[in-house]
Design brief:
Elements (H helix, E strand, L loop, with lengths): L1 E5 L21 E3 L3 E5 L5 E6 L5 H12 L35 E7 L10 E2 L1 H5 L1 H21 L1 H11 L15 E6 L17 E8 L2 E2 L3 E3 L4 E3 L6 E4 L6 E2 L3 E2 L8 E8 L10 H10 L1
Parallel strand pairs: 1-3, 2-11
Antiparallel strand pairs: 3-4, 4-12, 5-6, 5-7, 7-15, 8-12, 8-15, 9-14, 10-11, 10-13
Helix pairs in contact: 1-3, 3-4
Length: 283
């Protein structure tokens, strides 16, 4: 395992808005098992673990993850790909996000009047067999996290234990997962995640996938993440992909899936799922 210490840089988020990683965004390319520490405070901020996910888990997980794919995709994640909202129907003042195959699994907190209940999200609820296989993947990702960053894992575990067990992904330090099907994320900082832990992301690649690297400009690093690799990272750092593509027909000949597992901070405010439903009925 390589160990690197890098200084954190100040970045202007506006200069990265709605764009993807470019060559001048990084100084170092990481393409091997590597732990990256902040050179000032000694904190682990990035880790790349090659072939962290076993082939057996990958074979079981890939079709299960594909059950998340619905129609043309969802419209609530358009900015994630770096595409501005568009006026599709010529109506003044009306704009719509471009649909993306980007989905959420696991558990989510209340979201105001629109969704006033903490709950198991639809994909997880409606696909119990597939979700069971996804849980196996997430358990393996949690074990990799514990092996390579036990201190951060312990901190995250203690926080998860303050959340009602109804919202735990069993035998992991996660509550929630994002699944992106061949979607290259533009620069962004994640929100709603537990601030003192680490996010985990693994990748599956089918066929010939081109680019799909991840940039962390605050540390001047580009990570070469390939099939069955896993990274640990601080999701509140600015991060984004290079623009990815593939050879042949998407989803048939090639596909790149990223699986991001994390903890939703506000789940600490949730009652049991049964009590949440009762509460919603009384609103």
């Amino acid at each position: 395992m390589n160990i690197i210490k890098l200084p954190k840089k100040k970045v202007n988020d506006k200069s990265f808005h709605l764009r993807h990683c470019q060559r001048n965004d990084y100084d170092i390319v990481i393409d091997d098992n590597t732990l990256v520490y902040d050179s000032d405070n000694g904190e682990l901020v990035l880790a790349l673990i090659k072939k962290a996910i076993t082939m057996d888990t990958a074979i079981k997980s890939y079709p299960a993850l594909m059950t998340a794919k619905k129609g043309r995709g969802l419209r609530n994640r358009g900015a994630y790909s770096g595409i501005e909202r568009a006026n599709l129907y010529g109506k003044e003042g009306s704009s719509y996000a471009v649909p993306l195959h980007s989905y959420t699994g696991g558990f989510f907190e209340r979201q105001g009047g629109r969704i006033p209940v903490c709950r198991r999200v639809k994909w997880t609820r409606d696909n119990p067999r597939a979700w069971g296989r996804v849980e196996g993947l997430l358990q393996e990702m949690s074990d990799v996290f514990k092996k390579h960053s036990p201190d951060k894992w312990d901190i995250q575990k203690k926080y998860v234990n303050t959340i009602h067990p109804d919202y735990h992904i069993p035998n992991t330090v996660y509550t929630t997962v994002a699944v992106n099907l061949s979607v290259a994320g533009a620069y962004h900082r994640d929100t709603g995640d537990f601030k003192d832990g680490l996010g985990s992301m693994c990748v599956f690649m089918k066929g010939k996938c081109v680019n799909w690297d991840l940039c962390i400009p605050e540390y001047g690093a580009l990570l070469k993440i390939r099939d069955r690799d896993q990274i640990l990272f601080n999701p509140h750092l600015l991060h984004g992909n290079t623009k990815g593509s593939g050879v042949g027909e998407i989803y048939k000949d090639w596909n790149r899936i990223s699986v991001v597992a994390y903890v939703r901070e506000r789940l600490t405010k949730c009652l049991s799922i049964e009590k949440e439903l009762q509460r919603a009925r009384e609103l």
